[in-house]
Amino acid sequence: MTQTFYLKHMSKNNLVIVESPAKAKTIEKILGQDFVVMSSFGHIRDLPKKGLNIDKEHNFEPIYEIPLDKKKVIAALKKAAVKAQTVWLASDEDREGEAIAWHLCQALKLPASKTKRIAFHEITQSAVKNAIKNPRDVDIDLVNAQQARRVLDRLVGYELSPILWKKVQPGLSAGRVQSIAVKLIVDREREIKAFEAKGSYKTTATFKHASDKLEAELDKRFGLKPDALKFLEDIKEAKFSIKNIADKPSQRNPGAPFTTSMLQQEASRKLGFSVKQTMSVAQRLYEAGHITYMRTDSTNVSEIALKGCEKYIVSNFGKKYHHQRHYRTKNSNAQEAHEAIRPTDVSVISAGENTTQDKLYKLIWKRMVSSQMAAAETLKTEATINTSNRQEIFVAKGEVLKFDGFYKVWGGNKDDAILPKLAVGDVLELKEAHSLQIFSRPPARFSEASLVKTLEELGIGRPSTYAPIISTIQSRGYIERGDLEGSERQADELVLKNDTIHQTTKTDKFGADQKKLLPTHLAEVTTDFLSKYFTSIMDSGFTAGAEKQLDSISEGKLVWQDVIKDFYGQFHPQTETASNVSRHEASQARLVGKDPASKQPIYARFGRYGPMLQRGEVEDKTQKPDFATMPKDATIETVTLEQALKMFSLPREVGKTEDGQVISANSGRFGPYIKIGSTFVSIKPHDPFTIDEKQARQLYKDKLEAQSKKQLKLFKNSTVKVLAGPYGPYVTDGKKNTPVPKKTDPAKLTLKQATELLAHAKPRRRQK
User: What is the pTM of this model?
Assistant: First the structure.
């Protein structure tokens, strides 16, 4: 239903403005015919995309504009607002939503006398109607907190990004939180690369007890192979007996209902969702009225929801499974909402328009219901086994699930590991013992979920920012989400069986990873540059402190302009210092050596399109430097002078074509190629140093044939051509493209007809 339709049929005096059209439909059904519900389609005012648009001379006042695509929305809302006696601003109850409500007041010039602010955490009949009964004013403190964040991020981006463009690479961006996120990933990768695995020997044994088998592990690991061998030799003659048996009742409690970050982590772990996908799906579920608001730091749950859970649990599982819990929010500054993410109706166990939505809904439902269930109870048994001629002891462990509790809904009850019936003093017979070399592991690489967890633990960012941060650092080329195959190494295995020790080796695979966040070289260069010249921006403590100040602004304890002024006073001098740094230094240039022939220095450095080689100095006005691509499988840190000189020997003359044109081979930005006249031909997977004349001629011939097939018609003395494209024939003059009409034979087009088609075509978009 369109907004125009709303205006034509507006017969009552109540106008409700929400953020999204999907939410508008749901709310309109709840409120009925006395209310017209329209959407602002998100923000209707913002800082213009170009320029700083912050008046630094006048208390950092932001200069807002209404984007072109929102002009019609504003016009429709204004018409409706004039007709209405009461305008209800129902944007989300967080800082962003509060700012949208305030901007609506400003843009629509809504008088306070007819404007009411309402908010709800779930789109249900009771919640929406209760909000109508309890309106409030726009909370200017929340608005100021949002404005402060927007101004802070614009100042950082506007002053920092141009420096990165000049010193590192065009098109880069930087921000308070995204730069910290990239640094975390870069630092972790360097930690992993610097990590030296240490080996130790883990010893396990299989014993016979009556007719039962008992498996146990030694309580000590040996650092050296001779020590492990000596132990196995000694226990050939040893006697084994049960030294002690201990039973330990244990409980495991359910997790709290989801906050935003916990939902993102669990959806990643259990469903394989990306952070962005989780938030998008949750948004749809919220707008359809299935779950409460999905951006929240709170684990609090309403009494109505608690009673709903109790009713469901008792009726389906019995009273012993119910245990009411009130969770305290860990983050004392939680401002995003006042309830955890939960189903709006716990009796509905499946919801959503598709399988993806249903999967996420069920995860939220299980978490909420299980949070109000009894603890799972287990009995852990630990038996220690004495070795007669050594001090070390073996330990056998078993665990039996006595009561499944919340496992009934959440899952997680493993198969029981039951020990045989044992008694202190029982004698055991050693059947077999293994001592396997294992290696210490480096810290784990970040996944999207673990990055969110770390940012939250550091107090950096807020629920609404995690998804866009992770999307931005990937789209900007700082981070790649990928898999690593890993490597193999040999591990010793010592096996004692039938009084004989056998020594073998096993293949141990390490370093394999899936769906992890991997830093690019661009991320490393940018991180090092920012860490050196913008210490405050790259300090997680400073960034977390800024978040706390934003929280204080939202509580009315700080004036937002004062916070910005203090920050800018520290930040701006750093930009002036960084502006004077040479591109050479910023690009982490490494001196590889000197060219023996020209005596010019050769550097490995980061260039506009990635790692590259440079011969000569940029500052040398008498002779411009030469550039070459980085050899395959080499990096700035590893490339040798010999490799570099070989790359500078290109282009290499391969031979000539049949008509006498020179064929030269080279390596460029997009890989190896040959050049004949003005024609470039990719030679992948051939090597520019080894490709021969015959191979080059064939590749050139194939290229000409492909071009010939693509050219459907050429016109004499004109740049206009009719070509075959992947989506059908089209006309081009090199600047504009336009498709040939379906019923037109491209071969019969005249130059006049082709020119007329181009006259009505739009210019090609310039690629970023």
Answer: 0.78
